[in-house]
User: What shape does this take?
Amino acid sequence: MNLKLNAVFGRILAVELLLSLLFVLLLPPHAAYASYVNTNLNTYVHDATELQVGYPGQDMSFKVRVGYNNVNGLNNPQTDHITNVIVRLSNDQNYLRQEEDPEQKTSGKNPYNKEDEPDLYEAWKEGQKKGIDRAYGGNLTYPIDSGRYPFEVNASTFTQEARFERLQVGEYQEVVFNIKVRADTKEDYYGIPVSFYYNVPPNSYPDYRGPMKIEYINVYIKGSKEVANPASLTNDKAFAIGEGQQTPAGNAPAVMEYGVNFRNLMSVPLYQVRIHLNTALAEGTAVQQTARAKSSAATGFPFDINESNYDRSFDAVQPDETISAAYSMGIMQNAASGFYPLSYTVSYKLTPDAAASYEEKYTSYVRISNPSMNDDSDKLGEFNANDRKKARLILDSFRTEPEQVFAGQPFTLYLTMKNASTDIGASNILFSLESEKVDNSSVFSMESGSGSFVVNSLKANESTELSLTMEAAPGVNPRSYVITINEKYDSPDFKNAEEKLTVDIPVNQHSRLSVSNFELTPESIEVGRESNIMFGINNTGKVLLYNVQAIFEDPSIKKTSAYVGNIKPGETGNVDVMLTGVAPSTGDGTIPIVIQYEDVNGNISSMEQSCTLTVTEPVPEEPVDMDGMDMNVPSSSGPKKLLPLALAVIAAAAGAVFAIRRRRKKKDEENNTDEDADEGND
Assistant: This one.
């Protein structure tokens, strides 16, 4: 049975290969240009959450999502799950194909001379032709690339795969292919074919023998001129060094234990990260001495070299992840006291299996104290506040994201700190942020719990940007609050200089309001009649509501608006208006109410409410049959009969007026009571 089944599968595969070959040979030349694909028609292979972007000559992690929902797409199977799912990059015919039939004419130049090297010439031609017969998983592979496929084709390009034993309808999984973009790829969109193999139960075909669909996913290849190296994609460096750390310090000749933090600034993971401590100071730098050194003091690399290498390796570093390179270093006995600029070389790869790696240089300072190497004839003293020869660290600019800060919502504060001195540098700089307090509580809280930053050095006229995620307390009043920036740093001739700077952060509150005590009298009127509606608008927020008004608009009533005015926080504005029926209600009698108000800047906001008022056709009066009346009845009897009816109508009208006035009086009394209570609280 298995032999027969395999024979059937073999025939089916042969037919598929033959049809694919005929399809390829009949295609017109240059059919596979870069293009943007409508992926909405895909059934199984879908775009990742972000557009995939690659750069010529660089490694790339190409991501797709796989799954189906039995709603969208062209090839939905009518089943609640599929099995034996295999996902691969497809060597699709639109990309990898011969431009012409090699039996007629080769599309590439034969490197051998037909006259001088006939055997080699024919062998090359025959080898090219035989490439047509090679098949893999039902997809033909050709020896000549038409030049449109944007990825490098190597041994792993079309063999990487993801397998899922079962995919439920509505379930989606992410698949990542590690590839390299061809160096000659032009800037454009490219549709990348992906092969999707699967089984529809109860079928259980072997691998690659079941149904297979090829669907395309877009990538965008940027021009090679846009990026010199991968680190330049984010702030020119792949890592931020020393964030949130004090400058490591040690005393000679003891062993110094310290670590250096590196945070991944890129939006993708970095692999095979290696941090190497160089045994020479950073190029173009020198130790910044904190004391006059003896002539015998060493001012180079401050540590004894007692290890064969100083590499620290990490398999993978996720975006925004911080790693720490730990070191245990013996300080040289004759090291001069000062700040030493240590140099680190960091290498990494953009994909786990990438052939190319990238290197970057980083500098971080350590502080060494060695009194035995200080020249006591000229000790450096503590900073004198009256001596003006020091660096001037200023707040050059700041911004927040988002631009408007709202109470109770996180925001990021960006501070640009600048050394405004013309010729004096600063080192070992500590910036500490301190929030203004209200009722003994800080207005701003720091997401990380700490508002301190360490900057190794700032040269004259050099700037650095600090960023911190914060949140304003939910209950604060809308106004500006102060953040104090405490500075502590060393200048070349002095240490522990201190300064304070301040920045004002405006904090806004969202407007909040509610509606209460709807009263509608009467709830049903005839066309041409009026109904009275009253309700309160409560300002439940912390900001003043300006120019509040209620607008009533519906085909069944005359458009009416009621101006309430300004409503202070915690107070209520009353709406009292008459609605006139102009047409019978067509639905359930719902009348839309739009409550409009403005903020302090005149920006208009609105809130929608509704009430129910039924408008009916007027009831026609009954005609009086004069012919049927008894003309012998005395004329005085007519008014006597109508008198009770007239009195009843007058009494009902008077009752309605009295009820409305009583409700208005009650509302006025309530408002007066609230105002008295507010005055008492004040």
Summary: The two ends are 95 Å apart (CA to CA). The first strand starts at residue 45 and ends at 47.
